[in-house]
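Q: What structure does this chain adopt?
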Amino acid sequence: MTILALTFLSEGVMGFEECLALIIGAYLGTCITVVIGALGGSTIKKQVATSHVLFNVIFCTILIILFKPLVYLLKDIVLPFIHNNQVSENNNYVQVISLFHIFAKAIGVILFYPFIDRFKKLIERLLPIE
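A:
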C-alpha cells in the first residue's frame, strides 16, 4: 500500500495530505495479518496480536489527532531541507513521506516505551496465560 501511495504521489494522482493519510491507514491495515496469524493460536500469539493492534490503534489515533501539525512539520520544516530542484515537486514530497514512513514507527516506539510495563499488564489482564 505504501509503494502504491508513493507512486500515486509521484505521478500526481494523489496529493501530499492524501498520501500521508493513506500511509497512516496502512499502519492499521497491517494489523489484520497479525490477527489472522493468531487465530486459533496459543495465548502468547494472541497477546502479540493484541499488543500489535492496540499499539497501532493508539499510534494512529495520535497521528490522526496531530494530522494538521504533522503536515505542517513535514511540508514547511522537513521539505525545505531535502528540496531538490532537479526532480519534480511531487518527487520531493515522495522523499518527505518516505522519511516519515521510516521514522514514524521508531518515534512511536520511543514515545510508547515509558508505558511498556503498564501496557504489558493490560495485555496480560486481557489475555491471561492459561
